[in-house]
Design goal:
about 35% helix; six-stranded antiparallel sheet; alpha+beta; 13 helices; five-stranded parallel sheet; single chain
Length: about 400
Protein backbone atom coordinates (compact mmCIF):
# COMPACT_ATOMS: atom_id res chain seq x y z
CA UNK A 1 0.00 0.00 0.00
CA UNK A 2 1.51 3.33 -1.07
CA UNK A 3 -0.26 5.51 1.53
CA UNK A 4 -1.83 4.83 4.91
CA UNK A 5 -4.07 7.28 6.73
CA UNK A 6 -4.64 6.78 10.44
CA UNK A 7 -7.90 8.34 11.62
CA UNK A 8 -11.27 8.34 9.90
CA UNK A 9 -12.58 11.81 10.71
CA UNK A 10 -12.94 14.73 8.28
CA UNK A 11 -9.17 15.41 8.15
CA UNK A 12 -8.35 11.78 7.38
CA UNK A 13 -11.09 11.46 4.79
CA UNK A 14 -9.98 14.64 3.05
CA UNK A 15 -6.38 13.36 3.00
CA UNK A 16 -7.68 10.17 1.41
CA UNK A 17 -9.49 12.17 -1.25
CA UNK A 18 -6.31 14.11 -2.05
CA UNK A 19 -4.23 10.93 -2.41
CA UNK A 20 -6.80 8.94 -4.36
CA UNK A 21 -7.41 11.81 -6.77
CA UNK A 22 -3.75 11.48 -7.77
CA UNK A 23 -4.08 7.75 -8.35
CA UNK A 24 -2.21 6.67 -5.22
CA UNK A 25 -3.44 3.42 -3.58
CA UNK A 26 -4.60 4.38 -0.09
CA UNK A 27 -5.67 2.51 3.04
CA UNK A 28 -7.51 4.25 5.87
CA UNK A 29 -7.28 2.73 9.36
CA UNK A 30 -9.77 3.74 12.07
CA UNK A 31 -9.70 2.49 15.68
CA UNK A 32 -13.46 2.76 16.15
CA UNK A 33 -16.16 0.55 14.57
CA UNK A 34 -17.31 3.35 12.25
CA UNK A 35 -15.97 6.51 10.62
CA UNK A 36 -16.42 10.22 11.38
CA UNK A 37 -18.29 9.67 14.65
CA UNK A 38 -17.61 13.20 15.89
CA UNK A 39 -18.91 14.67 12.63
CA UNK A 40 -22.13 12.69 12.99
CA UNK A 41 -22.52 13.81 16.61
CA UNK A 42 -22.05 17.45 15.58
CA UNK A 43 -24.70 17.01 12.90
CA UNK A 44 -27.37 15.97 15.38
CA UNK A 45 -28.09 19.61 16.16
CA UNK A 46 -27.47 20.84 12.61
CA UNK A 47 -24.17 20.33 10.83
CA UNK A 48 -22.41 23.69 10.70
CA UNK A 49 -19.93 23.21 7.85
CA UNK A 50 -18.26 26.62 7.80
CA UNK A 51 -18.93 30.35 8.08
CA UNK A 52 -19.36 32.58 5.05
CA UNK A 53 -17.62 35.86 5.87
CA UNK A 54 -14.70 38.04 4.83
CA UNK A 55 -11.74 35.69 4.31
CA UNK A 56 -9.31 37.75 6.40
CA UNK A 57 -11.83 37.82 9.26
CA UNK A 58 -12.30 34.06 8.92
CA UNK A 59 -8.57 33.36 9.08
CA UNK A 60 -8.10 35.74 12.03
CA UNK A 61 -10.19 33.39 14.19
CA UNK A 62 -7.22 31.02 14.37
CA UNK A 63 -5.13 33.38 16.49
CA UNK A 64 -1.49 32.42 16.87
CA UNK A 65 -1.80 29.64 14.27
CA UNK A 66 -3.10 32.06 11.63
CA UNK A 67 0.16 32.35 9.68
CA UNK A 68 0.65 28.58 9.54
CA UNK A 69 -2.91 27.79 8.50
CA UNK A 70 -3.41 30.65 6.05
CA UNK A 71 -2.07 28.86 2.93
CA UNK A 72 -4.32 25.89 3.66
CA UNK A 73 -7.38 28.05 4.26
CA UNK A 74 -6.62 30.06 1.12
CA UNK A 75 -6.79 26.80 -0.82
CA UNK A 76 -9.78 25.30 0.98
CA UNK A 77 -11.80 27.96 2.74
CA UNK A 78 -15.53 28.56 3.24
CA UNK A 79 -16.46 28.88 -0.43
CA UNK A 80 -14.54 25.72 -1.29
CA UNK A 81 -16.33 23.90 1.53
CA UNK A 82 -19.66 24.92 0.02
CA UNK A 83 -18.61 23.75 -3.45
CA UNK A 84 -17.31 20.46 -2.03
CA UNK A 85 -20.56 19.71 -0.18
CA UNK A 86 -22.73 20.61 -3.15
CA UNK A 87 -20.48 18.46 -5.34
CA UNK A 88 -21.53 15.56 -3.12
CA UNK A 89 -25.17 16.31 -3.90
CA UNK A 90 -25.81 18.18 -0.65
CA UNK A 91 -27.23 21.67 -1.35
CA UNK A 92 -26.42 24.22 1.35
CA UNK A 93 -27.90 27.38 2.80
CA UNK A 94 -26.40 30.26 4.75
CA UNK A 95 -28.03 31.29 8.03
CA UNK A 96 -28.51 34.82 9.27
CA UNK A 97 -25.13 34.80 11.05
CA UNK A 98 -23.24 33.52 8.00
CA UNK A 99 -23.06 29.91 9.13
CA UNK A 100 -23.32 27.39 6.31
CA UNK A 101 -25.46 24.25 6.71
CA UNK A 102 -26.46 21.43 4.38
CA UNK A 103 -30.18 21.61 3.64
CA UNK A 104 -30.55 18.15 5.15
CA UNK A 105 -28.99 19.62 8.34
CA UNK A 106 -27.66 16.21 9.41
CA UNK A 107 -24.17 14.88 8.82
CA UNK A 108 -25.20 11.36 7.79
CA UNK A 109 -26.33 12.08 4.17
CA UNK A 110 -23.14 14.02 3.51
CA UNK A 111 -20.96 11.30 5.02
CA UNK A 112 -22.69 8.55 3.04
CA UNK A 113 -22.15 10.44 -0.22
CA UNK A 114 -18.53 11.16 0.67
CA UNK A 115 -17.72 7.54 1.54
CA UNK A 116 -19.44 6.32 -1.62
CA UNK A 117 -17.21 8.61 -3.67
CA UNK A 118 -14.05 7.53 -1.84
CA UNK A 119 -14.96 3.85 -2.20
CA UNK A 120 -15.49 4.36 -5.92
CA UNK A 121 -12.02 5.92 -6.09
CA UNK A 122 -10.57 2.77 -4.55
CA UNK A 123 -10.21 3.56 -0.85
CA UNK A 124 -9.49 0.56 1.36
CA UNK A 125 -11.05 0.90 4.80
CA UNK A 126 -10.04 -0.93 7.96
CA UNK A 127 -12.14 -0.51 11.10
CA UNK A 128 -11.15 -1.43 14.64
CA UNK A 129 -7.51 -1.04 13.64
CA UNK A 130 -5.69 0.78 16.46
CA UNK A 131 -2.26 2.14 15.63
CA UNK A 132 0.34 1.26 18.29
CA UNK A 133 3.45 2.88 16.84
CA UNK A 134 6.37 2.16 14.53
CA UNK A 135 8.67 -0.83 14.17
CA UNK A 136 11.28 -1.49 11.48
CA UNK A 137 10.16 1.73 9.73
CA UNK A 138 6.66 0.30 9.46
CA UNK A 139 3.34 0.83 11.23
CA UNK A 140 2.00 -1.53 13.90
CA UNK A 141 -1.72 -2.07 14.42
CA UNK A 142 -3.83 -4.05 16.86
CA UNK A 143 -6.76 -5.46 14.89
CA UNK A 144 -9.56 -8.04 15.36
CA UNK A 145 -7.48 -10.38 13.19
CA UNK A 146 -4.40 -9.93 15.35
CA UNK A 147 -1.32 -7.72 14.99
CA UNK A 148 -0.77 -6.17 11.55
CA UNK A 149 2.30 -4.46 10.09
CA UNK A 150 2.30 -2.06 7.11
CA UNK A 151 5.18 -0.28 5.39
CA UNK A 152 3.69 2.53 3.29
CA UNK A 153 5.68 5.12 1.39
CA UNK A 154 3.74 7.88 3.20
CA UNK A 155 1.57 8.06 6.30
CA UNK A 156 -0.95 10.71 7.29
CA UNK A 157 -1.78 10.91 11.00
CA UNK A 158 -5.24 12.42 11.54
CA UNK A 159 -6.27 11.15 14.95
CA UNK A 160 -7.98 14.19 16.43
CA UNK A 161 -7.39 16.00 19.70
CA UNK A 162 -7.98 14.85 23.26
CA UNK A 163 -11.70 15.36 23.82
CA UNK A 164 -14.72 13.13 23.30
CA UNK A 165 -12.71 9.94 23.76
CA UNK A 166 -15.80 7.77 23.23
CA UNK A 167 -16.01 9.14 19.68
CA UNK A 168 -12.36 8.43 18.94
CA UNK A 169 -10.47 11.61 19.90
CA UNK A 170 -8.68 10.21 22.94
CA UNK A 171 -5.24 11.78 22.49
CA UNK A 172 -3.48 8.47 23.24
CA UNK A 173 -1.34 8.97 20.15
CA UNK A 174 0.59 11.63 22.09
CA UNK A 175 2.36 8.93 24.12
CA UNK A 176 3.57 7.27 20.92
CA UNK A 177 4.92 10.49 19.43
CA UNK A 178 6.64 11.51 22.67
CA UNK A 179 8.31 8.09 22.80
CA UNK A 180 9.81 8.97 19.40
CA UNK A 181 11.29 12.17 20.83
CA UNK A 182 8.68 14.51 19.32
CA UNK A 183 7.97 17.40 21.70
CA UNK A 184 4.25 18.18 21.90
CA UNK A 185 2.32 21.15 23.24
CA UNK A 186 0.20 20.16 26.26
CA UNK A 187 -3.47 19.53 25.56
CA UNK A 188 -5.88 22.16 26.89
CA UNK A 189 -9.69 22.30 26.74
CA UNK A 190 -11.14 24.64 24.13
CA UNK A 191 -14.77 25.40 23.25
CA UNK A 192 -15.75 24.19 26.68
CA UNK A 193 -18.13 25.29 29.40
CA UNK A 194 -17.12 26.81 32.72
CA UNK A 195 -17.81 25.28 36.12
CA UNK A 196 -19.80 27.50 38.51
CA UNK A 197 -20.98 26.70 42.04
CA UNK A 198 -24.45 28.22 41.96
CA UNK A 199 -26.44 29.23 45.00
CA UNK A 200 -29.86 27.54 45.36
CA UNK A 201 -31.71 30.57 43.96
CA UNK A 202 -30.27 29.83 40.49
CA UNK A 203 -31.92 26.41 40.19
CA UNK A 204 -35.13 27.68 38.54
CA UNK A 205 -32.97 29.12 35.74
CA UNK A 206 -31.03 25.97 34.80
CA UNK A 207 -31.40 25.50 31.06
CA UNK A 208 -32.29 29.16 30.48
CA UNK A 209 -30.39 31.15 27.84
CA UNK A 210 -28.48 34.38 28.31
CA UNK A 211 -29.23 36.10 25.01
CA UNK A 212 -27.36 38.93 23.28
CA UNK A 213 -24.64 39.39 25.87
CA UNK A 214 -20.94 40.07 25.24
CA UNK A 215 -18.23 38.15 27.03
CA UNK A 216 -14.79 39.68 27.63
CA UNK A 217 -11.55 38.03 28.79
CA UNK A 218 -8.08 39.42 28.23
CA UNK A 219 -8.02 40.85 24.71
CA UNK A 220 -10.85 38.59 23.52
CA UNK A 221 -14.51 39.49 23.26
CA UNK A 222 -17.53 37.82 21.72
CA UNK A 223 -21.21 38.57 21.52
CA UNK A 224 -23.58 35.65 21.55
CA UNK A 225 -25.62 33.36 23.71
CA UNK A 226 -24.82 31.10 26.64
CA UNK A 227 -26.82 28.65 28.68
CA UNK A 228 -27.07 28.49 32.47
CA UNK A 229 -26.69 24.81 33.34
CA UNK A 230 -26.65 22.95 36.62
CA UNK A 231 -22.85 22.78 36.44
CA UNK A 232 -22.12 26.28 35.17
CA UNK A 233 -22.17 28.17 31.88
CA UNK A 234 -21.79 26.89 28.32
CA UNK A 235 -22.51 27.94 24.76
CA UNK A 236 -21.13 29.41 21.57
CA UNK A 237 -21.17 32.96 22.90
CA UNK A 238 -18.74 32.00 25.64
CA UNK A 239 -16.38 29.63 23.83
CA UNK A 240 -14.33 32.18 21.80
CA UNK A 241 -12.97 33.79 24.99
CA UNK A 242 -11.96 30.50 26.64
CA UNK A 243 -8.31 30.76 25.42
CA UNK A 244 -7.90 33.89 27.54
CA UNK A 245 -9.74 32.33 30.49
CA UNK A 246 -7.29 29.41 30.32
CA UNK A 247 -4.52 31.97 30.85
CA UNK A 248 -6.28 33.21 34.02
CA UNK A 249 -7.68 36.39 32.46
CA UNK A 250 -10.64 37.83 34.35
CA UNK A 251 -13.99 37.11 32.71
CA UNK A 252 -16.69 39.76 32.51
CA UNK A 253 -19.99 40.03 30.68
CA UNK A 254 -21.74 43.06 29.20
CA UNK A 255 -25.40 42.37 29.89
CA UNK A 256 -26.61 45.24 27.68
CA UNK A 257 -24.26 45.54 24.68
CA UNK A 258 -26.72 47.68 22.69
CA UNK A 259 -26.60 50.49 25.27
CA UNK A 260 -23.44 52.46 25.92
CA UNK A 261 -22.57 53.38 29.48
CA UNK A 262 -23.75 57.01 29.24
CA UNK A 263 -27.20 56.12 27.87
CA UNK A 264 -27.56 53.37 30.41
CA UNK A 265 -26.61 55.77 33.20
CA UNK A 266 -29.32 58.19 32.01
CA UNK A 267 -31.95 55.46 32.23
CA UNK A 268 -30.79 54.34 35.65
CA UNK A 269 -30.95 57.94 36.92
CA UNK A 270 -34.75 57.96 36.73
CA UNK A 271 -36.36 58.04 40.19
CA UNK A 272 -37.35 54.62 41.47
CA UNK A 273 -39.57 55.92 44.31
CA UNK A 274 -40.53 52.96 46.49
CA UNK A 275 -39.68 50.23 43.96
CA UNK A 276 -37.06 47.69 44.83
CA UNK A 277 -33.85 48.03 42.86
CA UNK A 278 -34.64 44.68 41.25
CA UNK A 279 -38.02 45.87 39.93
CA UNK A 280 -36.52 49.19 38.92
CA UNK A 281 -33.93 47.40 36.77
CA UNK A 282 -36.48 45.03 35.27
CA UNK A 283 -38.64 47.92 34.07
CA UNK A 284 -35.87 50.25 32.92
CA UNK A 285 -33.57 47.89 31.03
CA UNK A 286 -35.79 44.84 30.56
CA UNK A 287 -33.36 42.19 31.72
CA UNK A 288 -34.68 38.65 31.24
CA UNK A 289 -35.39 36.66 34.42
CA UNK A 290 -32.29 34.52 33.81
CA UNK A 291 -30.06 37.54 33.19
CA UNK A 292 -31.37 39.32 36.25
CA UNK A 293 -30.84 36.20 38.35
CA UNK A 294 -27.23 36.02 37.13
CA UNK A 295 -26.72 39.67 38.01
CA UNK A 296 -27.96 39.09 41.56
CA UNK A 297 -25.85 35.94 41.84
CA UNK A 298 -22.62 37.61 40.75
CA UNK A 299 -22.87 41.27 41.74
CA UNK A 300 -24.79 41.62 45.00
CA UNK A 301 -24.91 43.97 46.76
CA UNK A 302 -25.63 46.07 43.68
CA UNK A 303 -24.43 49.67 43.74
CA UNK A 304 -27.28 52.15 43.88
CA UNK A 305 -25.45 55.11 42.33
CA UNK A 306 -26.44 55.16 38.60
CA UNK A 307 -22.95 55.43 37.13
CA UNK A 308 -21.57 52.62 39.29
CA UNK A 309 -24.59 50.45 38.52
CA UNK A 310 -24.20 51.11 34.79
CA UNK A 311 -20.57 50.04 34.96
CA UNK A 312 -21.56 46.84 36.73
CA UNK A 313 -24.11 46.00 34.05
CA UNK A 314 -21.60 46.73 31.30
CA UNK A 315 -18.75 44.69 32.82
CA UNK A 316 -20.13 42.27 35.38
CA UNK A 317 -17.43 39.93 36.76
CA UNK A 318 -18.24 36.26 36.28
CA UNK A 319 -16.90 34.03 39.05
CA UNK A 320 -16.17 30.46 38.02
CA UNK A 321 -14.07 27.43 38.90
CA UNK A 322 -12.36 27.04 35.55
CA UNK A 323 -13.15 24.98 32.45
CA UNK A 324 -14.95 21.67 32.53
CA UNK A 325 -12.84 18.51 32.17
CA UNK A 326 -10.99 18.13 28.88
CA UNK A 327 -13.03 15.17 27.67
CA UNK A 328 -16.17 17.34 27.86
CA UNK A 329 -14.67 19.98 25.56
CA UNK A 330 -15.86 20.23 21.97
CA UNK A 331 -12.22 20.56 20.93
CA UNK A 332 -8.76 20.89 22.42
CA UNK A 333 -5.74 23.09 21.90
CA UNK A 334 -2.26 21.62 22.01
CA UNK A 335 -0.77 18.67 20.17
CA UNK A 336 1.83 18.65 17.38
CA UNK A 337 3.44 22.12 17.19
CA UNK A 338 4.00 23.64 13.78
CA UNK A 339 7.75 23.96 14.39
CA UNK A 340 7.92 20.15 14.43
CA UNK A 341 6.53 20.13 10.86
CA UNK A 342 7.71 21.38 7.50
CA UNK A 343 5.57 23.53 5.21
CA UNK A 344 3.83 20.40 3.90
CA UNK A 345 2.87 19.25 7.43
CA UNK A 346 5.49 16.48 7.39
CA UNK A 347 7.23 15.67 10.68
CA UNK A 348 10.80 16.90 10.38
CA UNK A 349 12.04 13.94 12.41
CA UNK A 350 9.93 11.37 10.51
CA UNK A 351 10.23 11.78 6.73
CA UNK A 352 7.09 10.52 5.02
CA UNK A 353 4.86 11.03 8.07
CA UNK A 354 2.36 13.89 7.82
CA UNK A 355 -0.05 15.30 10.45
CA UNK A 356 -3.46 16.90 9.98
CA UNK A 357 -6.62 18.00 11.74
CA UNK A 358 -7.15 18.65 15.43
CA UNK A 359 -3.99 16.81 16.46
CA UNK A 360 -2.13 19.94 15.29
CA UNK A 361 -1.61 22.71 17.83
CA UNK A 362 -4.20 25.25 16.74
CA UNK A 363 -7.26 26.68 18.43
CA UNK A 364 -10.47 28.09 16.97
CA UNK A 365 -14.06 28.73 18.04
CA UNK A 366 -17.04 26.70 16.95
CA UNK A 367 -19.20 28.03 14.14
CA UNK A 368 -17.62 26.16 11.22
CA UNK A 369 -14.01 27.16 11.87
CA UNK A 370 -13.00 23.82 13.41
CA UNK A 371 -14.40 21.68 10.62
CA UNK A 372 -13.07 23.88 7.83
CA UNK A 373 -9.53 23.90 9.20
CA UNK A 374 -9.59 20.15 9.86
CA UNK A 375 -10.54 19.49 6.25
CA UNK A 376 -8.12 22.10 4.88
CA UNK A 377 -5.16 20.59 6.78
CA UNK A 378 -6.22 17.09 5.73
CA UNK A 379 -6.29 18.12 2.09
CA UNK A 380 -2.90 19.84 2.41
CA UNK A 381 -1.28 16.85 4.15
CA UNK A 382 -2.73 14.44 1.58
CA UNK A 383 -1.44 16.52 -1.32
CA UNK A 384 2.05 16.75 0.14
CA UNK A 385 2.06 13.05 0.98
CA UNK A 386 1.27 12.40 -2.69
CA UNK A 387 4.16 14.67 -3.72
CA UNK A 388 6.47 12.78 -1.35
CA UNK A 389 5.49 9.43 -2.92
CA UNK A 390 6.03 10.74 -6.43
CA UNK A 391 9.49 12.05 -5.50
CA UNK A 392 10.42 8.63 -4.12
CA UNK A 393 9.28 7.00 -7.35
Amino acid sequence: MSAVIIGGGPAGLMAAEALLSQGIPTLLAEAKPSLARKLLMAGKSGLNLTKIENHDAFCAQFGAAHDHLRPMLDQFGPEQVRAWAEGLGQPCFTGSTGRLFPEAMKGSPLLRAWLARLDAMGLERRLRWRWTGWSDAGLRFETPEGPQHLTPQATVLAMGGASWARLGSDGLWAQTLRAEGIALSPFQPSNVGLLVDWSPHMRPHFGAPLKNVTFHAGGLRNRGEAIISARGLEGGGLYPVIPAVREDAALTVDLLPDLDEDKLCQRLSKPRSKQSLSNHLRKLVKLSPATQALLMEMARPLPTEPRALARTLKAMPLRHNGPRPMDEAISTAGGVPFDALDAGLMLRSKPGVFCAGEMLDWDAPTGGYLLTASMATGLWAGQHAANHIRKQA
